[in-house]
Amino acid sequence: MYVLTVIPIMRGVFRDELTYYSEARVDPGAIVTIPLRGKEVSALVLGSTEARALRGELRSKEYQLKKIGVLRAERLVGAEFIRAAIALSRFYAAPLGLVLKNLIPRALLARAGKLALPAEEPFDARPREKTKWTLGRVVQSPLEERMSAYRSVVREAFARGESVYVIVPSIYEVESVESALSRGIEEFTFGIHASLPARKFDELWRKILAPGHPILAVGTSMLLSLPRRDLKTIVIERDHATIYKHLTRPYLDTRAFAELLAREISGELIVGDVTTRLETIYKMERGLYSELRHATSHPARIYPEEVIDMRTYREEKPFRIISDPLLKLLEGAGRMGEKTLLLVGRKGFAPSTVCNDCGSVLTCEHCTSPLVLHQEEHTTKSGKKFEETVYVCHKCYARSRANTLCRECGGWRLFALGIGIDRAAEEIKKKFPNAPLFLLESDAAKKAGGGAEIVGQFLAKKGGILLGTEAALYYLSRRVENTAILSIDSLFAIPDFRMGERTTNLIAEVKSLAARRFFVQTRRPDELIFPFLTQGNIGGFYRSELESRKKWNYPPYSVLVKITQKGNREAVTEEMRKLEKLASKWQPIVFPAFTETLKGLYILHALLKIPRESWPDAELTTILRSLSLSYSVVVDPAEIL
Questions:
Q1: By three-state DSSP, how is residue 383 classified?
Q2: Alpha-carbon distance 189 to 183, whole Å?
Q3: Rounded distance, CA 189 to CA 133, Å?
Q4: How many CA atoms lie less than 13 Å away from 344 in the CB half-sphere?
Q5: How would you label 602-628 residue by residue, b for 16+ Cβ within 10 Å and e otherwise?
């Protein structure tokens, strides 16, 4: 008989380790099933000890050990993976089982028996002694140059007999990056993601793990669970992609796990983007990361040909959307058969509506978020098409009629402000009725064929205009002659400390897709970023941002912990008072959410700023893990609103 220490791979279990017994020997690293809360769940065996060695301890227990169910796989993931997961769970103050539930692909766990690995060596998941790690590399370049740098990295790794994993944010990018990197090594290059059919997934999984020649694997975050012994290089492509931050408990970050795993395998982590996150630049300044020698890192080359001050047209009626320089560019592009990408910051017709009687912004009656004006096309049963103008809340998706009145004063003189993609499309159709126009925003991207099909049609045409929101940048992977930003001013109104950095990266991405000309239109040319852009001094902007973050103790100089309560206003306020007392040592800042009420629920946040060198904090972690599930705890949140 053997006593097993296991980690249940499921939600809702707040102890990291549980104890069961097995009549047969089961080695650490195995995947078994265990009876828990009336059902059989998967668990990873962390330790195994003969029962006779623990006889005295077992006699003293006040409960009887339960027997495990079945052995599903001798080995599924590597010990390095588990050590990195343990470190990640400590950073995010989360139960280890919940962390594993998020890290191990559901498709892999469901077919553990079919995809099991032989237990060829001892499984030791005990944390190793800390060693200084200086093997992070950074490449800040346009997409084509990053791909060239990665190809050089792969060639050198293959020459050393080592494999390379490239992690990308989306399934579409798996295909495009695999295509860009596989030339000449197609036989040893594999693209994999969890949405593949089961048979195809199993086939690729086995090929990737087959011994012999090193391989290049391109995939989403699930790729990190494949335990190849010769893996020594992990690439995180598109460092700024917000999709790397998980949206459900425990709100992990794939980029953080990739770094921890690279440390555990004593490998190299490469981080790439047009411009990387400030956290990455901070690590470069501290000597933890350095520039990748294969690449020419030049974020300063993102400056636009012209920043156009749209206030010049403020007296014009109707509201001016396209400036004279951009009109001239589009006219010339049409004559020459050139392609143009135009970016707008928001969906809909207008991002906000203001009452001309009292000056109030029209907000959602359910959650108080600003309502966005949309123009929607419908078709009757007889096939006749008609347009309907409605207000849509992008927070709770409530809809209301366009003839609504101001909630503050009852006034009817409502004025639509700002530029959404529908408003821009209407104007472009008026100015250039014969130009092929393609619209791409997040809703269109979710439909069958989606963004890839729209971009494919755009690229197949001679000339044409692709009008899109930020979602379009996920699908356009090659340069076009001209790019321009019609408006991203709405982003500057969002009161989040990362917004300047995110806006800069967005501008950089649009610029990197321009083969010839790039314009930026704005009604806020005095924003901090624009003087740096016109001077081509992005390094200066980064330094300014880092100084501001240091002054106000924001990341990367601290680790933020955001704790949220939703519910009845009085109950939420009382719960937050209790939390303030419980966590008083860390001086929580309590404030209402940017959208105070959502679907009738009042929302309060508490923000803790912990010095980076003091995190993880064992005492605070104990408090956070003791909170009821009515609290949402996010360590290192993507935003604090």
A1: coil
A2: 9
A3: 28
A4: 26
A5: bbbbbbbbbeeeebebeebbebbeebe
Residue ranges of the chain with per-residue pLDDT less than 50: 300
What is the reported pLDDT for 300? 42
CA–CA separation, 8 vs 101, rounded Å? 9
Strands 601-611 and 558-567: antiparallel
Report how far residue 172's alpha carbon sits from residue 629's, in angstroms, rounded to the nearest whole number.
Answer: 35
Concatenated DSSP letters for 117-172?
A: ----S----SPPPP-----EEEEES-HHHHHHHHHHHHHHHHHTT-EEEEE-SSHH
349 touches 341 (CB < 8 A): no
Specify the pLDDT at position 60. Answer: 61
* Residue appearing with tokens 């890290």: 103
pLDDT tens digits, one per residue of 415-474: 666 788 888 998 999 999 999 999 998 776 666 568 889 999 999 999 999 999 988 998
- Closest by CA to 138, choosing from 235, 219, 220, is 235
| pLDDT-above-90 percentage for the chain | 59
- Tell how strand 18-22 and strand 66-67 pair up: parallel
Q: 424, 429, 428, 363: which is closest to 396 by C-alpha?
A: 363
Given a contact cutoff of 8 angstroms between Cβ atoms, the answer to whether 86 and 260 are in contact is no
User: How far is residue 580 CA from its own chain's centroid?
Assistant: 30
* Rounded (5°) CA angle 349-593-282: 90
Q: What's the pLDDT score for residue 131? A: 55
pTM: 0.88
Q: Are 487 and 348 in contact (CB under 8 A)?
A: no
Q: Determine the Cα–Cα distance for residues 118 and 76; give it in Å rounded to an integer.
A: 9
Phi, psi of 339 (to 5 degrees): -95, 150
Contact indicator for 586, 602 with CB cutoff of 8 Å: no
Amino acid letter for position 229? R
The pLDDT score that the predictor gives to residue 219 is 96
